[in-house]
Amino acid sequence: MAGTVERTTDTTRCPCGTGEAYGACCARFHRGEADAPTAEALMRSRYSAFALRDTSYLARTWHASTRPTLDELRLDADQRWLRLDVLGTTGGGPFDDDGTVTFEARWRSGAERGVLRERSRFVREERRWTYLDGEVA
């Protein structure tokens, strides 16, 4: 389901893997109704944005110092994001200014399958979390 844009509604399970309905989970962040309260919540909402191909949300939540242009942020139309597993976090809470989230994201593109393992860094400025960069393992 995670990579199937056309089947995601407010009542279907959120692609980020929390088990919540999309409307009660990442949709509120994607729609700009709220900001993610933690680095992990932002990371999960960004994963959902990749799965749903929401490049404007990805750009909006990327730190200005490392943000690619929208032209550079083209997503592979054949790639489907299948599952997210958060392996660990450091910092990134509501009172922190930085944090990391280590995760594995499983994907499929045609017959090819793979796993992206990353330790992502996030910073909070003016009470808003943004993705700074990541170290792929």
Automatic annotation (TrEMBL):
<comment type="similarity">
    <text>Belongs to the UPF0225 family.</text>
</comment>
<feature type="domain" description="YchJ-like middle NTF2-like">
    <location>
        <begin position="38"/>
        <end position="134"/>
    </location>
</feature>
<dbReference type="InterPro" id="IPR032710">
    <property type="entry name" value="NTF2-like_dom_sf"/>
</dbReference>
<dbReference type="Pfam" id="PF17775">
    <property type="entry name" value="YchJ_M-like"/>
</dbReference>
<dbReference type="InterPro" id="IPR048469">
    <property type="entry name" value="YchJ-like_M"/>
</dbReference>
<dbReference type="InterPro" id="IPR023006">
    <property type="entry name" value="YchJ-like"/>
</dbReference>
<dbReference type="InterPro" id="IPR004027">
    <property type="entry name" value="SEC_C_motif"/>
</dbReference>
<dbReference type="Pfam" id="PF02810">
    <property type="entry name" value="SEC-C"/>
</dbReference>
<protein>
    <recommendedName>
        <fullName>UPF0225 protein FMM08_15495</fullName>
    </recommendedName>
</protein>
